[in-house]
Amino acid sequence: MSEKVVLEHDDLRRTLRRIAHEIAEKNPDSDRLAIVGIHTRGAVLARRLHVFLGELTGTELPIGDLDISFYRDDVGAKAPAEQPVVHSSHIDFDLSGRTVILVDDVLYTGRTVRAAIEALFDYGRPQRVQLAVLCDRGHRELPFRPDYVGKNLPTAREERVNVRLEEADGKDEVTISEPSPVEVAR
Amino acid sequence: MKHLLSIEQLSRAEIEAILDRAESFAEVGRRDIKKVPTLRGRTVVSLFYESSTRTSSSFDLAAKRLSADLVSVKAAGSSVEKGESLKDTIATLSAYDPAAIVIRHPYAGAAQMVANWTSAAVVNAGDGKHEHPSQALLDVYTLRRRLGSLEGVKIWIVGDVLHSRVARSNLIAFARMGAEVTVCGPPTLIPRGIETLGCEVAFTLDGIEEADVVYALRMQKERMSESFVPSLREYAANFQIDTRRLNPRQLLMHPGPVNRGVELSGEAIDSPQSLIAEQVAAGLVVRMAILYELLAGAEQAPSGDGEGSAPTPIGTPA
What are the extents of the domains in chain A? Predict the structure, then answer.
């Protein structure tokens, strides 16, 4: 399998810092902001954005994470072993009246975002939800558009986008890999 | 895993997977909206041929909190009283095309039979004196939350082991999770050969001080056709777990319902070392996890989200 690096360590960090600046710029009343990451890597990215936004705004914003497994529309379409590992969600602040920045690593079909928004509304009624993603790889199946994009990655459906983050994978990078012929045949 | 018929069928890894899943359902239970849409549009039938408070209510609530449609049938008050056979009852309820059937029945092997008659996933909620797997899972879950792990934990199962499906399932589950199990009771209430399941046997409470966990069983008066003990009072004199016999470091469990003053003293039930209320709370989240585990992998469902993996039918029984 060949892998092409599209964001290196420094690029990735700069990109996140830029997203943090955009969030701060677009939301002047920063005391109404909250950050929620989607498990697993979205939650890691959310923690980093949280640090940057803390520096930019001088306020400690509420942060949470969401596991969307119970909200997926493909429950039953995969064998249990292939279902993602379920984590717990943690949102221990009041969402009402807040602008929630939903954070994920890769935006693809949009189904994860749909599930995340549904999950979010089981916790409360945010004033506004904005979407921040590190990569947008296209191929949307639902009408979602991100508010903040780290990098647009035109990809083919067969390709894989791999986001690796230090906290989860030991290093920071984004790569695109093409499946080997064997995998395509499968 | 297509059905949950026994603990015997589960590996340690499978048990742990269900318990991990239950942990995340515990978080759902702490929210204002304690419901997730996971099983929306699926039907769950619960069919109880024996009385039950805990098991039936928690399976029912578990199905509802997963947004499944629930049909709950009790043998009392149903056509079973008019003489309808189990097979015909299952055929009738199968007409609703349920995704899962939860069944409790007084005969051992009933759940297995039902599994042969229906395409739904079958959950054994207790079959005669055979097994009660969901009880064992919730007990392991309760202990794991308290102790972190069951590895090397000494557990005494005390009382009417002979009539107890809970004893059998728990013994297997506890042993599989690495605990050292002793079953204890009067010789008439200990089935011959039970040590082959991997436990010690004791006929008196001498030595119970070594136990980290004391698991008392209900005296099953309704299943006792002959006199297994001279009297309940004599049983209580020799085997009742009270605060005098229990030392403060030991944890106390009981599957419920308790005969107060027979297998447990009232004081012991209400003591802080009793986990009985925690067991009931665990029952709900563990049963949500069981339904999720069985149904999240079933075949009929909308198509995937394009992440590449084709739907994998797992319709073949293991």
Answer: 10-155
Q: Tell me what ipTM this predicted complex has.
A: 0.71
Q: Taking Cα atoms as reference points, which of A37, A59, A46 lies closest to residue A19?
A: A46
> Helix (H) and strand (E) counts for chain B?
9, 9
**Strand order across the beta sheet in which B100-105 lies:** B69-74, B43-48, B100-105, B121-127
Contacts of B230 (CB under 8 A, 6+ apart): none
The predicted pLDDT at position B144 comes to: 97
Q: How far, in Å, CA of B104 to CA of B128, rounded?
A: 8
What span, in angstroms and rounded, lies between the C-alpha atoms of B133 and B139? 10
Does residue B316 fall inside a structural domain?
no
CB atoms within 10 A of CB B46: 26
pLDDT tens for each residue of B290-317: 999 999 865 433 333 333 333 333 333 3
SS3 A58: coil
Q: Which of B21, B66, B312 sits opposite A86 (nearest CB)?
A: B21
Taking a C-beta distance cutoff of 8 angstroms, is the pair B175, B183 a contact? no
* In a domain? residue B78: yes
Candidate from B97-111, B152-166, B206-220, B299-313 with smallest mean pLDDT: B299-313
Q: In this complex, is the C-beta atom of B305 within 8 Å of any C-beta atom belonging to chain A?
A: yes
Query: Mind listing the pLDDT tens digit for each residue in B112-141?
Result: 999 999 999 999 999 999 999 999 999 999
Q: How far is CA A62 from the centre of its chain?
A: 17
Among B31, B292, B304, the residue with its CB nearest the CB of A122 is: B31
Is pTM beyond 0.80? Reply is yes
What pLDDT score was predicted for residue A184? 53
Write down the architecture of domain A10-155 according to CATH: 3-Layer(aba) Sandwich (3.40)
Give the count of Cβ contacts less than 8 A between chain A and B: 96
Cβ-Cβ contacts under 8 Å, B38 against chain A: 69-72, 75
B4 within some domain: no
Burial bucket for residue B284 (CB in 10 Å: 0-12, 13-18, 19+): buried
Does the distance separating the beta carbons of A72 and B305 come in below 8 Å? yes
Domain extent at residue B114: 12-131+283-295
Using the structure block, give the residue that is written with the tokens 């075949």. Answer: B299
In a domain, B308, yes or no: no
- Report the CATH number at residue B121: 3.40.50.1370
